[in-house]
Each structure stands twice: as structure tokens, then as C-alpha cells.
Design goal:
This protein is an all-alpha fold. The protein has 46 helices and 2 strands. Helix 34 runs antiparallel to helix 36. It starts with 15 loop residues before the first helix and ends with a helix.
Length: 987
């Protein structure tokens, strides 16, 4: 601040204007102790000026920064001093400070509620004084009744609260009433407290939709809406309000209660891990004691979250907590609960009720409202600990079903290929310990245990084969040995497996020919042989190998087709055989045949009552249909895979299917549905432990789909969450650049221009190394826009110059011209920059003319260039008009205005050459020329320009009707205004 007029080198204030500038600058600083300390310093400086109003304003500034901080308790001292000054010399207060004094009366009265050391009688006294002073000042009682409601609601006097609430709403709104947004927040909060969630959300709707806003709204309403939305099951809205709202309160120190609402939301929606992340971001919230009421809110939800973690078996987990020691979840739960109840007891002692304690206990006792609400941001699942039975399983046998019933159920499940057949046989094995079973039962137990072990199950398959033989089922014995051979092939020993299965193949066919075994057992051996041959296909795609595998598959189908009956296993063999033929067709290059066969295979599994087996083939089918250019068919196949997988689909498979659906659905333009699929993909990727890889890609897509819906804050939260896990190695640098680009767009829309510039520059730095430089140029240009909007003109000019150089190298005249125009406007803002601005705009005109003077492009491109020239002349005219110094001589002003008018007239001529396609641009220039002519005291010329605009919109749009859209109406109204003014000048 050194060197600014009115400030000395030690930041001391040397004048009232400097004091005001310093207070305005401090008001823009982040909430917190540093801003408060500066306000205290400025009050000391104000007292040296010997100007009562300076002290009044400095006290008001101090009071406001205290109010919007964690040190709210400090605001009573400056207010008491202000009130004393008012009572002694009200004439020292100007109109604004008089208004402010009465305005902050509300803060004092309700602010006392937040401080349990202030007696209730003192609050009632202040409430009465507020009512008297407002009446004397001629204000409505609306703010008084609102304050009375707050007191009654806080102490739990519901009858008085309802009376005051009704009187509040009935009183007239005046200058002392809280803003609409704050009033609606409090009104909705009361409805929610009374159990009327729908009414609360109806009241909050105008704030949530942006109709009413203020410094702390919609921040607080978004936070307050979370639990009511969860209670009503409006989960999409709850998710959106959390992502959007947390972004707003994250950096605002004074919003601890709203922050607590977000932590509470995490605890109630299965997002405990995110709740811990929120606690870690704000360590000071555990100990800041300047506002006990919000500290109570915070400690209560900390206890809620920690109790939830403890309930999930994570009581020993390290968690963020008050500084000075480490905390486990269970320890912090006890500490936070004790602190919350102690704070509540202090309020209740002051109030003479138990209302605050009852509310705190109810808040801490809440149960989750949703098992898990996916948010789309990075998350780690806080899984419950595995509970080990304290009693040995054998001691529980009397409670188990009869062993024979267990065997019967396991056999039913395995005969119908149910997903949990292996687990059922495992239950038989546990129950059968110490019991002698017949060979058939033991064979099936070993067989299914081997299936569960995979490559480690070879020996068990052989054991099962021996037991089947002992049980008198040689065909099933051969089938078990064939399964063992297939396991060897999966482990990589394909040749050995083929040698083994060749012998088994001969044996089972010989056995089948003499009725020594059935179709099911024979088909099992033949299918194992076909599977092993398919493994060889994966290793070598030679024609002979493909042919041998196809022959093996067709042998299975020839054996089984027409003989399935009600046998689920045989129906599954047919479906699997068709899937194998589909894969062989794909490897042979016949994509259409492959898609048809996969369709039959999936349908076969579904018809057999085995939809979960269809999932793999529907996913394969989707890929083929995508290749064939059938996005609708691809979408149907992916949707069927999700439906048929049901609860049996693994998390990673579910994530992959949802991610593919997001791409397909987004491709047809349904961004809302695409976002839902991307959200599900992110959630299931996290569940599968694939958050950093597949989850990051899903979040990247989700952010893009949210951005396309204009949900900027949600998109920004998701994209910021994706970036730490995105890498060029895993996801490609294109995904990293696109995420940064999208995030820059979001931040720009949210008004966070400096941050937007950083993201765009980071993306540009990566794109700088790409062979094709269009993205690099675009990002540099966008970064320049953000830097300019952030008030960094020098940095913006450098970025525009960089972009301009790239546009020139790319031969992109439009980008080059726009970068020159932007630099011209930046130059005009600089001291003594008018000449540079004119030079840059002149260069922009010249670049347009050079491009138009070259070989004539196709008609559409030519018209775009002509339009660019028109807009450049128009902007040049505007720039000249704004470049006139305030202290310029009349002749100098007139010369600049003449030059400005000449440029605008050039624009009119250029736009006119484009006909109706540039009508709106031409009429805008006509009106600008008219006002310039008026400034040059040429009313007749100005009137002619106005009539030209009216004539332009008096024609038709081709339908026989005069144009009557918003632009036409606005232009006609301005032209009529100009014409009227010029007619008055004539008379």
C-alpha cells in the first residue's frame, strides 16, 4: 500500500479518503483474524484524524468484519461505543451510518443468543430497546418481530415463536428488514425444525434458484437444505446442493454452522470418508471459541460422524481432531459429545430450559438416511470391519439346517447353475465336518471347492473325478478331469491340456456310444475341449487353429441342440457355444455375423433363466455394434448387461458398463442421463478400489456432462476431485488437458477468474508440446480472457500476444484479429495507453483487409471474414469514443469523435454488404453512429440514422410479418428515443 495517496510508508492513514479506501480494501480480504486485526488498526488510525464520522465509519467496519468471522463475540464493544456516540451526538452520523447503526441492532440482539454468558434478561432488554428505537426512527416492526422469533425459538418457547413468526411475516417490509434471501432462509429453517420439510424447501426455492442472493446466501440455504432433502428422498438435489454449497462455504470462516451441515450430510449419506476430509480442511473449527453456538453445531456433528465410524468397526481409525494430540474415531466421539453437551448445558442454564440440550442429543442420535449416496468426487469406502463369530462354528450346529437339506439345496443350485452354488457346497463342507458322506456328495463338494480355487484347484478336480468314479458315474468323472485340463490351459499350459483332453474326448464318446453316460456329462467334456482350443486361438490366430476350434464348438452344438429340454446346463452349453462361434467370427473379421451370434448367445442364457451369464456377451456385443455404427443397439446391449447382471455383477464390471453407457448416451446429447451413468461409474470404480484409474476417468466424464448442463459449481467440484488422479501415463495427456480446460470454463462462469486462468495456463503448457497447435492457441486465448477479468492486464496482454502468435502460425485470421482487439482494449485501460490501443486496433483492421485481399475463399468463409472486418471497425469506433480524456479540449474531443464516427460508418457499410445476415449488427452500428452524430451536434444526421433502423425492422422476416423479437423491439425503442430527442433539438 506504500505510495498510495493518503497512506504513509508504514500503512498509516493520512486522510479520510485514504481511510475509506483502506477499509474498502480490507473488506475484500478473506474472513479471519488478519482482517479483524487490520480493522482494529484502522480504527486507531481513524481516531487520529479528529473527525467523528471517520471514527463512526471505522467502528462500523470493525463491527462488520467481527460479525463475519469466528470472533463474533468482539462485535458488542464497537456497537456499544457507536450507540453511545449516537445518543450523545446523532448529528455526527450521516444518512448511511444512521441506517447502518439501526441495521446492526438486529445483529446485536440475535447475536447475544450465540453467547451463553449473556443473560436472557439482557437480550429481552435489548429487544425492547430495539423495538423502541425502530419505532422512533419510523421503521416497521418486521425486523423486531423477527428478532423476537429468534429468541423464542432458541429457548424453546414454541408458542411465542409461532406468534412472533406470524407477526414477522405480517409486518411490512422496509429498509430495516433482512434481505429476502436471509429471511427466506430463516423461515425455511423454522419449517424444517417443525417437521415441515416440503414447506421449507418451497420457501428456499427462490434462493436456491438464484432469484435472491446476498453475501451468505445461497451458501446457508444450500447447507440447511441437505438433511430435509435426504429425509424426503430427493437424493439428486441433495447431492447437487452439497457439491455446490460446500464450494461456497469452504473458505468462509464465519460459516461454521453451515460447514457443520455438510459434515452432517456426509454422516447421514454413507460418505463418512468425505466427512473426515471436511474436518481435516478446517482444524481451527475444533477450537475457535468466539462463537459458542456454531461450535456447538460443529461438535455435535463431529460426534455424529465419529459414532458412525465406530459403529462401522472403525473406532480405532486415526481421524482429524483438535490440535495437540492424535485422535481415534472412538476417542474423538467421546470428546466431541462431551463438549457438545457441555456447551448445550451452558445455553440451557442461561435460558432456563432444556431445549438446546434436547436438540443437540437428537442431532447426535440421528441414523443414516441413505446407505451410500454417490457424490461423484473422490471417495474411499469406509467398509465395516469383518465380524468374526465368537462361538466356534461346530458349537452352532444345532442351529444349522439339516445336513441333508443343505446338500439338497446345494445340488439344486449347482444343477441350475445359480451364482451361489459354490458357497452352498462350502456350507455343506462346514456342516459335514466329522460326518461320513457318500462318495457322490464328497465328489460334488470337492468339485465345487476346486471351481472356487481356480488355477489352484487342479488336484481337487482330480480328487472329485476319483470320487465320481467311486460313486459309479464314470461320465462325470471324465468331466471333472476335463475341467482340470481346462484349468491347466488357463494357467498357460495349453499343449498339455490338449493332450489330456484328447484322451478324455475319446473315452467319453466311446462311453456315450454304449449308453455308459448321458448327454450332460459328454457335453461337459466336449465343452472343456472347445474351451481349451479357444485358449489356443487366443495365442495364435492361424486359420487351422480357428478351424479346429470352430469344429470343436460345432460338435458340442450338434450333441446338445434339440436335446436340452428343461436341462439348464444343456441350454447353457448351447448359448456358450454360440458365444464361442461369435468370437471366432469376430477374429475372422466377420463383425456382423459375430454380433448376430452374440445376440443369440445372450438371448439363450436369458431364456434359460441365467441372465447373469449373458452380461459378458452383451458387453462384447455392445463393442461390435459401436464398431458397426449402431449406437442405439450398443446402448440397448449395455443396458441389458446392467439389467441382467443385477446383484451378481462385480463392482468393476458395473463401473465399466456405466462408463460406456455414459459415452453412448452423451453422444446422443442426453447430458443428464449421461451424467447419471458417469456418476454410477465413479461410485462403482471407487467400490472396486479402482478410483485412481477408472474412477478418475469417470469423474472426468461426469464433470464434462455437468458442465454441459450449466451446473458449474458441481462440475468444478468433480473435476477438481478428478485431477489429482489423472495422469498422462494412465489416462493420456488429452484427458488431463480437457479436464483442466473444462475446470477453467467452470471457474470462469463462477467468477473465479484468477483460478480459471491458472487452470487454462496449465492446460496450455501441456498442449504446447502437441504437434497440432489449435488447442494450445485456444487455451492461451482463454487464459488471457481470464487474466483480464481477474484484473491482471499485463499478464493478460502477454497471454493474448502468445495466442496471437499461435493464431498467425496456424493461419487462423479470426483468432489473430480477436487477440489484437482484446489487447487494444487492455491497452486503453492503462495509463497513457490510448496510442497503443489505436495501433493495435489499426493492426486488426489491416489483418482483416489482408485476409480479404487474398484468394477468395468459399462463400461462407468469405462472409465470416467480412463480418469480422465489420466488427473490428465497430469496436475501433467504440474504442476511440472511450479514449477521450476527461480534461481534453473541445477541438480535441471533436476530432476523436469524428474519427470514431468514421470507423462506425465503415462498419455500417461492411455489414450492409452482408444483407439480412448482418441486420442486427448493422442496426447496432447505425444507432452508435446516430449517438455520435448527436454528440457532434448534427441532429439531422442522427435522426436519419434512427429512421434507417426503424425502416430496417419495418420489413418482413420472409413470413409476411415484421420482425418482433427482443432485439428488434429493443432497437426500435432506442431508435424512437433518438428520433424524439433529435426532434426536440430541432424545435
Amino acid at each position: 500500500m506504500s505510495g498510495i495517496d493518503g497512506l504513509d510508508g508504514n500503512h498509516g492513514v493520512t486522510g479520510f479518503d485514504a481511510l475509506r479506501r483502506a477499509m474498502a480494501e480490507n473488506a475484500e480480504e478473506p474472513e479471519g483474524p488478519a482482517r479483524n486485526a487490520r480493522a482494529e488498526q484502522l480504527l486507531a488510525e481513524a481516531e487520529k484524524l479528529n473527525t467523528p464520522l471517520a471514527v463512526i465509519e471505522a467502528l462500523g467496519h470493525q463491527l462488520k468484519v467481527y460479525n463475519y468471522s469466528s470472533e463474533k463475540a468482539k462485535m458488542f464493544v464497537p456497537f456499544a461505543r457507536l450507540l453511545r456516540m449516537w445518543d450523545e451526538r446523532p448529528e455526527d452520523f450521516d444518512e448511511y451510518e444512521t441506517h447502518s447503526l439501526h441495521w446492526v441492532f438486529k445483529w446485536m440482539t440475535t447475536g447475544m443468543l450465540d453467547q451463553p454468558h449473556i443473560p436472557l434478561a439482557a437480550m429481552e432488554k435489548w429487544l425492547g430497546e430495539m423495538e423502541q428505537r425502530y419505532r422512533l426512527a419510523g421503521h416497521s416492526e418486521r425486523a423486531v418481530r423477527s428478532a423476537e422469533y429468534s429468541v423464542a425459538a432458541h429457548v424453546g418457547d414454541l408458542a411465542r415463536a409461532e406468534r412472533a413468526y406470524a407477526a414477522w411475516l405480517a409486518a411490512d417490509r422496509d429498509a430495516m428488514a433482512d434481505c429476502h434471501a436471509c429471511e427466506l432462509h430463516e423461515q425455511g429453517w423454522w419449517q424444517a425444525q417443525r417437521g415441515r420439510d416440503e414447506e421449507a424447501l418451497d420457501l428456499w426455492a427462490p434462493v436456491l434458484e438464484g432469484e435472491f442472493t446476498c453475501a451468505h446466501e445461497p451458501h446457508a440455504v444450500l447447507a440447511s437444505s441437505l438433511t430435509p432433502l435426504l429425509r424426503l428422498g430427493r437424493l439428486d438435489e441433495a447431492r447437487a446442493n452439497h457439491l455446490r454449497g460446500f464450494r461456497l462455504v469452504r473458505s468462509m470462516e464465519s460459516m461454521r454452522s453451515a460447514y457443520a451441515d455438510h459434515v452432517e450430510f456426509c454422516a447421514l449419506s454413507g460418505n463418512e470418508a468425505r466427512g473426515l476430509e471436511l474436518l481435516a480442511e478446517r482444524p481451527a473449527y475444533f477450537t475457535d471459541d468466539g462463537h459458542p453456538r456454531s461450535r456447538l453445531d460443529f461438535t455435535a456433528v463431529v460426534a455424529l460422524l465419529m459414532d458412525r465410524l465406530t459403529e462401522l468397526g472403525l473406532g480405532d481409525r486415526p481421524v482429524p481432531g483438535p490440535a495437540g494430540r492424535s485422535w481415534s474415531a472412538a476417542e474423538l466421539a467421546a470428546h466431541a459429545r462431551a463438549e457438545a453437551l457441555a456447551l448445550a448445558a451452558r445455553f440451557d442454564e442461561r435460558n432456563g430450559t432444556v431445549h438446546v440440550s434436547e436438540r443437540a442429543r437428537a442431532r447426535m442420535a440421528q441414523r443414516p438416511l441413505v446407505e451410500r449416496l454417490p457424490l461423484g468426487v473422490r471417495a474411499v469406502r469406509t467398509a465395516a470391519a469383518v465380524v468374526v463369530p465368537s462361538v466356534p462354528l461346530t458349537a452352532q450346529e444345532p442351529d444349522l439346517p439339516d445336513l441333508s437339506a443343505l446338500i439338497a439345496e446345494a445340488r439344486r443350485l449347482s444343477d441350475t447353475l445359480q451364482p451361489n452354488a459354490v458357497e452352498a457346497w462350502a456350507a455343506v463342507a462346514r456342516a459335514a465336518k466329522g460326518v461320513e458322506l457318500d462318495p457322490r456328495d464328497r465328489a460334488e463338494m470337492a468339485d465345487h471347492e476346486a471351481m472356487d480355487l481356480g488355477p489352484e484347484g487342479t488336484e481337487l478336480f482330480e480328487r472329485a473325478a476319483a470320487l465320481y468314479a467311486e460313486a459309479g458315474d464314470p461320465g462325470e468323472s471324465l468331466a471333472a478331469r476335463a475341467r482340470a485340463a481346462y484349468i491347466r490351459a488357463l494357467a498357460g499350459d495349453v499343449d498339455e491340456a490338449l493332450t489330456v483332453v484328447a484322451g478324455l474326448y475319446d473315452e467319453v464318446l466311446a462311453l456315450y456310444s454304449t449308453d455308459g453316460t448321458g448327454v450332460r456329462q459328454t457335453a461337459s467334456v466336449l465343452m472343456s475341449r472347445a474351451r481349451i482350443l479357444m485358449r489356443r486361438v487366443h495365442e495364435a490366430e492361424e486359420d487351422a487353429v480357428l478351424s479346429e476350434a470352430e469344429q470343436a464348438v460345432r460338435e458340442v452344438l450338434a450333441l446338445v441342440e434339440g436335446r436340452t429340454g428343461d436341462d439348464v446346463r444343456l441350454a447353457a452349453r448351447v448359448a456358450e457355444g454360440q458365444a464361442m462361434l461369435a468370437e471366432l467370427a469376430a477374429r475372422a473379421g466377420d463383425v456382423e455375423a459375430s454380433a448376430e451370434l452374440f445376440t443369440w448367445a445372450a438371448a439363450g442364457f436369458v431364456e434359460a433363466g441365467l441372465p447373469w451369464f449373458a452380461v459378458e456377451y452383451e458387453a462384447r456385443l455392445a463393442g461390435l455394434l459401436h464398431h458397426l455404427g449402431d449406437p442405439a443397439g450398443c446402448e440397448r446391449a449395455l443396458g441389458a448387461a446392467l439389467e441382467h447382471g443385477g446383484p451378481h455383477l462385480e463392482a468393476i464390471g458395473r463401473a465399466q458398463l456405466h462408463l460406456q453407457l455414459a459415452e453412448i448416451v452423451g453422444g446422443r446429447g442426453d447430458d443428464e442421463e449421461a451424467a447419471e451413468h458417469a456418476l454410477e461409474a465413479a461410485h462403482w470404480a471407487d467400490e472396486a478400489g479402482e478410483g485412481p484409474a477408472l474412477g478418475a476417468l469417470a469423474r472426468h466424464q461426469l464433470g464434462g456432462f455437468l458442465l454441459r448442463q450449466g451446473r458449474w459449481a458441481e462440475a468444478a467440484e468433480v473435476l477438481e476431485s478428478a485431477l489429482p488422479d489423472l495422469s498422462a501415463e494412465t489416462h493420456g495427456d488429452g484427458a488431463v488437458v480437457q479436464t483442466q480446460w473444462w475446470l477453467g470454463d467452470c471457474l470462469s462462469e463462477l467468477g473465479e477468474h484468477r483460478e480459471a486462468a491458472e487452470r487454462r495456463l496449465q492446460a496450455a503448457e501441456i498442449a504446447r508440446h502437441w504437434p497440432e497447435q489449435h488447442d494450445h492457441a485456444t487455451l492461451a486465448h482463454l487464459a488471457a480472457e481470464s487474466l483480464g477479468a481477474a484484473g491482471l492486464p499485463a499478464e493478460a496482454d502477454r497471454a493474448y500476444a502468445r495466442a496471437g502468435g499461435l493464431w498467425r502460425e496456424l493461419g487462423n485470421v479470426h483468432g489473430l484479429i480477436r487477440s489484437l482487439r482484446a489487447r487494444a482494449w487492455l491497452a486503453l485501460r492503462a495509463e497513457d495507453g490510448a496510442d497503443t490501443a489505436r495501433e493495435l486496433m489499426t493492426e486488426a483492421v489491416r489483418e482483416c483487409e489482408v485476409a480479404l485481399g487474398g484468394t477468395r475463399a468459399e462463400e461462407e468463409a468469405w462472409q465470416r471474414l467480412v463480418g469480422e472486418l465489420g466488427h473490428t471497425h465497430r469496436q475501433f469506433g467504440d474504442l476511440l469514443a472511450r479514449s477521450v480524456p476527461e480534461d481534453a479540449e473541445d477541438d480535441s474531443i471533436r476530432a476523436v469523435l469524428e474519427a470514431s464516427l468514421a470507423q462506425v460508418v465503415e462498419a455500417i457499410v461492411v455489414f450492409a454488404s452482408l444483407g439480412d445476415d448482418a441486420l442486427d449488427a448493422r442496426t447496432g452500428a447505425e444507432l452508435a453512429a446516430g449517438w455520435l452524430a448527436a454528440d457532434l451536434s448534427r441532429p439531422a444526421e442522427a435522426a436519419a440514422r434512427a429512421r434507417a433502423v426503424l425502416d430496417a425492422y419495418g420489413g418482413t422476416d420472409g413470413s409476411g410479418k415484421a420482425r418482433d423479437d427482443e432485439t428488434a423491439r429493443t432497437r426500435r425503442a432506442e431508435a424512437e428515443q433518438m428520433l424524439g430527442l433529435m426532434e426536440e433539438q430541432k424545435s
